User: Fold this.
Amino acid sequence: MFRFIVRRLLQLIPTLLGLSLLLFVWLHRLPGGPETALLGERGTPETRAMIRRQLGLDQPLWVQYGRFMKRLLRGDFGSSIDTKQPVLDEFLARFPGTVELTVAALIFAIGIGIPLGYLAARRRAGWLDNLSVGGSLVAVCVPIFFLGYLVKQLFAVKLGWFPPTGRQDVTIDATRVTGFYVLDGMLTGEFDAAWNAIMHLILPGLTLASIPLAIIVRITRASVLEVLGEDYVRTARAKGLTERRIRGRHVLRNAMLPVVTVLGLLTGGLLSGAVLTETVFAFTGIGHFIRQAIDNRDYPVMMGFIMIIAVIYVLVNLLVDLSYSLIDPRVRVR
Amino acid sequence: MTLLDVQDLSVMFTQRGREDVRAVDGVSFDVSAGEVVGLVGESGCGKSVTSLALMGLLPEKGVKVSGRADFDGTNLLGVDQRTMRDLRGRELGMIFQDPLSSLNPVVAIGKQVTEVLARHRGLSGDAAAKEAEHLLDRVGIPDPRRRLKEYPHQLSGGMRQRALIAMAVACRPRLLIADEPTTALDVTIQAQILELLKELVHQDGTALIMITHDLGVVAGLCDRINVLYAGRVVESAARRPLFAEPTHPYTRGLLGSIPRLDSVRGEPLNPIPGSVRDLLPWVEGCAFAPRCERVIEACVEAPPALIGGSHQYRCVNPVLGRSAGPEHLLEQE
Assistant:
């Protein structure tokens, strides 16, 4: 088990090297540059060239890459061209928001998706089945930003059930401990602040959850249907076990295997979906910041954020693989 | 004393937009305590469906079951699901064909044994673990304590079938149904598993319904044999008369198609031509007629009835007299 984890972590090194090289070349090939964002249309060719020189962008690409890697090996991602702050600080200041949003979306997607998919399979071709299959098709098709504006308009603006934007009401003077607002509220005992943060998570969380929720419903349904026809479920019935036992021990556990696999893949989609969702709900997370960084050609921020997200993605998938081996003894790692 | 009395069991599969398929058609037989009854036939003859119907394991939708199956005064085909669940695993045990797919791959063997004990005998914790260990030991699994913690993929094929048998006999059921229990196994393991079943039946006085296509299995184990063809019993007799004087041409064909070691080299095998047909085959005449070498006009005029006393057969042109063939199978005993 330990060796498996170490091996997987070591695999990160070549992955990140390849990714950094590809990204570096790619991002610097994008038309325009940070000087345009800084100067706008006013800049003369001379001032533009000066800024490029100051930022070291006049050097050959491989020299720039060498510098970037040298700093990176010391744990330094560089500083944002835009805000002049270290990239890592910028990231850490915003990441908790994105994590909260992603976790909320995952809770919605899993908490609703698995029971719904299961019930749909149990009552196959019933109204719930038809509704969930049709609904999940719609959910996958509707673009996330469109859905975001839609739910915001309806539930926040028209009905006023939830706050339309932000992570917490500005009128709330909450103590910050970890940067995770919900957790902070719990830790300091400011439960109204935690509740307020939770309310702010509902609409963006549901919006972000739409696609993974739809996929989880479909996969759970298909998987449960398949498992229900397995010989070992028949064996369980032949033992006279109660339906509840058969479902819990024999059906659900086996049916979860494909769902867990997909969860790891969906996490990547969640992070990119977070960019759109955060923009719609003016939610302070990395998504909003990374969008600005792309607009401004803020190379260090783009490189840093994408690399860190890549590491997180790999770690999440490692976690998924480990949980997979917990459920299925056949793939148990030694 | 008769433990299970099956009368006129029929199973019909219905599907919208398709003609109904009668998989089992008026099958009757009985089993007494300590007796081994064989249901024999080719694939598609309805033998597995018969067993699933008796266990109440057929799907509810699209299946019509009729007839009676009196098990110690209870009609298995008429009781509600709850009663059936109480009987299954406690009074009725079943062993399936493919031990790998019949065991849950993600649940330890021990748990799969103890869950029956918990359900029907109220055992839990150490008591259940101890009993499970005893059961695995009884079905001949070496080092049972270690095996309890293992998963199906860690066991050999024979070991898995033994585990499955341990689960089926965990509550000492009075009736055991074995559906091709040796088909997925090596020949050497087959003999061991049959020996084990024989022992269990002998020790506990369990009644056993043995479902198989293998007449070698039947010869070594069964007291009485029902040969099924296209959902109906075509011949029913005690073991010796059936092997000595197979009366229905189909039974004779089955026996004749077994390869013999003492046959002349290069002599061709004797398969029965064709295969089982579905779609209401018994309506216009004998279902076996298209494949039968003894077919006469009467065969296709009306479906033949089951006639005879203790040796019954369903044929208008039966083979009478001793068979030249397969009595050697009996010598294997």
In short: Chain A touches chain B through 22 residues (CB under 8 Å). Residues 94-283 of chain A form a domain with the MetI-like fold fold (CATH 1.10.3720). The first helix of chain A runs from residue 2 to 29.
